[in-house]
Amino acid sequence: MNSHTVRSLAYLTGLIIKSFGISLVIRSRLGTGAWDGFYVGMAGHFGLTVGSWLIILGIFLIFFNSFLIKSKPNFFPIITIFILGCCIDFWLHFLNFEPDGAESQVLIFWVGLLFTAVGISIYVQGQFALTPVDQLMYALSKRFGFSLMISKTIGECFALAFAFLLHGPIGLGTIIFTFLCGPLIQFLIPRIERMLFCR
């Protein structure tokens, strides 16, 4: 299998896995990731679906990221956020359940966090069009020289502030997600790259 095919499959598979993980975290009711809490808060206040707000706010971030790295906006990520937004709305509809206790909440949350980090680490191997949120991680790293871990954490804290203001689903899980997702991604990316491309 040539590298182009591998990257294409990684891109699509990673987005599906990431959207599944995000949906599990939301359904855990333990507290969503900061960005997801932002989207859920917007949906609760202004209507539309969680996926729709991911797309709308993603378009705004496209322009913000271009400002950070001082370049023209890259509109290819619209494809990515459209796929991701639709997948999240699909999974939220399909995974229509309530956790039946604290143990279930914790299990669903941790599985969701792991799937989210794995999904991100796989789809970035496609090198096609990162989501604006993940582009923000790279834009902050490029602009200020931060590591990916630090850049991801800064972006999560930014979203956390807005999620809090919108009374989004903030909880213990939000804090865990905010500070662990970045390190997990940094740990997984080189390992998945070696696995996919035998490096």
Automatic annotation (TrEMBL):
Protein name per UniProt: Membrane protein YczE
The organism of origin for this protein: Lihuaxuella thermophila
Transmembrane regions listed in the UniProt entry: 9-26, 38-63, 75-94, 106-124, 144-164, 170-189
Pfam families, sorted: DUF6198
Alphabetical keyword list: Membrane, Transmembrane, Transmembrane helix
The keyword Transmembrane helix is assigned to this record: yes
Transmembrane helix found in the keyword field: yes
